[in-house]
Amino acid sequence: MNKYLLYPGCSMESSAKAYMDSLNAIMEPLDLQLEEIDDWNCCGATEYLGINLIPAYSLIARNLALAANQANQMNSTRTVVAPCSACYLNLAKADYYMQERPSLGVKVNEALEAGGLQYKPGTLDVRHLIDILVYDVGLETIRSKVTHPLNGLKVAPYMGCMLPRPDYQNRWSDHEHPTELDDLLRALGADVIDYPLTTSCCGGHMTQIGPETAFELIRRLVADADERGAVMMVTVCPMCQMNIDAYQNEMNHYFGVSYHMPILFFTQLMGLAFGGKPEKLGIGAELVNARNALATIGVEVPITQEPTAKRKKDEGLPMPRRWSKREEGKEAVK
Amino acid sequence: MPHMTDERVRAGLAREEDLSLLNEVSMKTAGVSHLEMCIQCGTCGGSCPVAIDMDHTPRMLFAMLRAGMREEVLRSNTPWICVSCYHCVVRCPQEVHIADVMYTLKGMAIKAKLYSNSTAPDFSQTFVDMVETFGRSYELGLASRHYLRHFPLRLPGMMPMGFGMITKGRMAITPKRIKHMDQLKKILNRAKQLELTS
Questions:
Q1: In the prediction, which pLDDT does A331 show?
Q2: How far apart are the first and last CA of chain B?
């Protein structure tokens, strides 16, 4: 029995519900027990850090303090598992910087005290879900649970950026080309393509505040996966899933291209390989549907109601606008 | 400052180096920033996937910090374009916490009201408002407030996506609230009174 504390993060209950559903579905076969941190709060994503330092770290540290208390009561684990890469990084970062810069730790604890809490940095181990699955549960165990191998499913393993970097505790095989996700997907029988952009950025919050910057990053990822023959991308992060999935249509419009590259969570593929039903794994919740991609290995996804929005008229030639319109009048970077 | 430089300054051959801005940024950054260790190698800008949209590459910005160009630095769009992908951070030979320095600069720019014409500060503030009210992020509230305020013309184009997210159960209509909001508020209020200076 592997028992851990779980920090789900806000997206797991909304935009990445499919991730949570599929995680719930694979816990039993893997003999994994995750106890949710009671009354956890948002980690602040990448927004709070840019506004005010001590409140940002105090917001994160409240979760660490609650988790440490709960770990004390459980007396069986001191590991917090975060399935979201941004949450994982924030929790790990606060824990690390409170040690690296003791004055930060002192101030954050002063703030926590106002709420009757405290946290001694280093008390907990903060780890990402895939870290637990690959290194604690182990690929052998995962392979032994596969009843419906994903043979022939060509997937692009997309690790994203905030998981393998900056990597304060040296948990990953590499910072730019880690192989954990590749290995796990191979254990499920999938045909994993070489995907050099595996840790390139999806644009993060730029889809909201500077969409043109984000669209180019999304285009590179999707185009490369497509050119290399993948029928879908596989991710470990709700933010990556959201950007590649929900903004793919807008990106297509922006560049005058027409990619159809579904992106699923790795836990959804694990669920399928363990014999789970697609609808129990949140498959069908993606906006760029994975139906055809999964049909290549004989998995049938029941049709759910699709939003029937009209597409705008495609006008003119598909010009890569970024290089014509946007670069004009901008001084070259010296 | 080395003795030789003092002599040169007195002789009027050089200006005394003013590192107060560099030190201020370094002090305000979480962790040990290593900012003063930058050797201007340019690995950061060369690794950056979005450098093309930046006013200054990180290397240039750090040189400007050293030169004490406060206003130019705080007006630069660079920290607001940074996507926190940490490519530069793991490649930097001097282990400068580049992404964290960018966060510090954003905070300083907001306080000095010097940030470039960007909707980013407002997006961050809206996000923080939601978290300070509910304890969790609230995507529908965040997205609708942000789009209404900054991109009302993009709203119609966003409707199919928003509609899809809601019908597929991926965007909640109402916010989720934590139980001990009072506790979180007390912590954040106390935290706001504290500033990292040493």
A1: 44
A2: 21
